[in-house]
From TrEMBL:
GO terms for cellular component: dynein complex. It comes from the Eukaryota. Pfam families: AAA_6, Dynein_AAA_lid. This is Dynein heavy chain AAA 5 extension domain-containing protein. Coiled coil: none annotated. Residues 173-286 form the Dynein heavy chain AAA 5 extension domain. GO terms for biological process: microtubule-based movement. InterPro entries: AAA_6, DHC, Dynein_AAA5_ext, P-loop_NTPase.
Length: 287
């Protein structure tokens, strides 16, 4: 039961985990086998995350443990990232490297022999172009955005500030703007390319790092000033990828939606909200 659970849960999406565990429960009636834990190793991971000012969530620590179980000491890693080419090269790699002679032949006819200590991690967004046979033979570690969400990243980012007023203001602003912006991007507007939720948050935090240094927001800064810079960063973090198609200018629709929904920070209704910037002296939006 433990082996079945260990090999399967790290390969399936979060939504299927409950269904799978129900099937395991039906297969092993009245049997509850806890997973083998390395408490000292888990504590070391937790302490390392604390030292790095990261959020030590239990489900993320479990992912790190599973990753360590898929490798061996002294491994030499060849990390392959990006999308999987659907023209069968991954299956050729499967046949040549995983099944038979452990030799990787490149397009330039260079041959790389893989030793017992070498690993080929694939850092990829999905498994759409990979057959079930390859998935079965590979060690898959699935990181779902629903497992962790964006809160740990933002919480760690806020923790880098030493200004209590700034922290409190940012928490209020994040809870007010971010969830609804994420929701409307999924349902109301079109963007030029799919963007993961975490990337919107990273863009937001990076813009705020650039816009609100001590020269713009000293320790005694009022909360409405933080709000002004936050709104500007939010507009571009969530609105920059919106584009006009042949029928509708979705940037105009985004501007109308923003002006009708958020009125705390004043922006003129003449023109798009994306055409405004912040005057550093009065700290107000101007076209």
């Amino acid at each position: 039961m433990r082996a079945l659970r260990k090999l399967t849960t790290q390969k399936i999406v979060t939504e299927d985990t409950t269904l799978f565990m129900g099937l395991v429960g039906d297969l092993f009636l009245a049997l509850d086998v806890p997973r083998t834990r390395e408490l000292e190793f888990e504590n070391q991971i937790r302490q390392a995350m604390v030292d790095l000012k990261l959020q030590h969530k239990n489900n993320f620590i479990l992912k790190v443990v599973k990753q360590s179980q898929m490798s061996v000491d002294g491994s030499k890693l060849m990390i392959l990232d990006g999308d999987i080419d659907p023209i069968m090269w991954i299956e050729l790699l499967n046949t040549a490297v995983i099944d038979e002679n452990k030799v990787l032949t490149l397009e330039i006819n260079e041959r790389i022999a893989l030793t017992q200590t070498m690993r080929l991690p694939f850092d990829i967004p999905n498994l759409r172009s990979i057959t079930p046979g390859t998935v079965f033979q590979a060690g898959v570690l699935y990181l779902s955005h629903t497992d962790h969400g964006w809160n740990p990243y933002v919480t760690s980012w806020i923790g880098t500030s030493d200004n209590a007023t700034e922290k409190a203001a940012l928490l209020v602003l994040l809870n007010k703007y971010v969830p609804i912006c994420l929701e409307v991007l999924k349902t109301k507007f079109k963007i030029v390319t799919p963007i993961p939720e975490i990337m919107h948050k990273q863009m937001l935090c990076t813009l705020l790092d650039c816009l609100s240094p001590p020269i713009n927001c000293p320790p005694e800064t009022a909360r409405d000033v933080y709000g002004t810079y936050f709104v500007f960063a939010c507009l571009w973090a969530f609105g920059s990828a919106i584009f006009p198609d042949q029928l509708i200018d979705w940037r105009v629709e985004f501007s109308k939606w923003w002006l009708s929904g958020f009125k705390t920070i004043t922006i003129s209704s003449s023109g798009s909200v994306l055409n405004y910037f912040i005057d550093p002296e009065p700290k107000q939006f101007i076209p």
